[in-house]
Amino acid sequence: MAALPIDAIIQRIADLQDEIGLFASFRHNPSIFYRRPDTNVFFTAVTVFTLQNLRQAVSPEARLIIDRVGQKAALAYPDFRNKDGLNTYNFWPTRPSRHFSNGYVFRHFDHFRIPDDIDDTAMVYLTTPVLPADQQWLKQKLDQHANGSQPQKIINTYPDCRNLRAYSTWFGKNMGVDFDACALCNILFCIYHNKLPRNQHDTDSLTYLRLVVESGRYVSEPFRCAPHYARTSLIIYHLARLMAAFDIPELASIAPRLVSDGRRELTRVHNRVEQVMLSTALLWLGESVPNVPIGDIEHDFDTFHFFIAGLLTAYEQPWIRRFADRPLMQMRWQCEAHCWALVAEYLSLK
Predict the structure, then answer these.
(1) What are phi and psi of 196, to 5 degrees?
(2) How many other C-beta atoms lie within 10 A of the C-beta of residue 214?
(3) Residue 223: is its pLDDT beyond 80?
(4) Whole-prediction pTM value?
């Protein structure tokens, strides 16, 4: 298929939205020949977020399409709202819980039911109008679950990061504290976007992001730095998006490192969706990049994943954690609509 203009891509994305407002996604593990359709809010919300961010770069007709896509998606969001009616959101439907939707085994075990998280909550807040009182409530909720705010403190991070009062990925009381660089970028994007008051938790979250880049750990150990994304390219993308949108002095010093590592990654990855994503990150950072050929790029969608779930990530025992980054222990998520949104985002910058 020939390369498509942005407006045509946006229409294609709209055509992929189902009647209840969601975009189809799949979880799979090629190591065990596993593939299932997955009902989640994340890929719908992040696709809408990506489209809304390029709204000013498209035609008036495409803007109307983006607006309709966002309105339809918002109708589906309540299915993923906190099971007790609080204003946080879960990856999967909550009432009743449909964790590992359309599966045969994991959905029967409460062990695999996850609490609400900052990633999905940030994306829902960023793609719908939210009252100031609800924004303030979320900020307080985040503070309550940050590292050091509960008796339980983070274990699964670097020794020099364990005392950082950064935000945890999870809102659940019984879930271990978890730092994920990409999820932190998303919730910080939400906080800066809504001009919420910042405190030590925000400062320490930014410190974590700076440390994992300055130390090079995000290149050598991306799974440990961002266990739910687990690739250097994805960390670069999320950081560049945050830094391009807001003036954040605490992150200014890492821009040169992101550029040099981003350029190196661009020469190493072969999937064109990943090349598009890295090129977008470099463009956000003010760099020029060679053109990525996007003709027939949909052939690369099946080998690209944006998000993972590590089946052993939640465990804090070192002897279990040593296996957590193995591909056998991970589910990977794919979404055609989001892949197209990444392509449209790249074209809007080029």
Answers:
(1) -80, 150
(2) 12
(3) yes
(4) 0.92
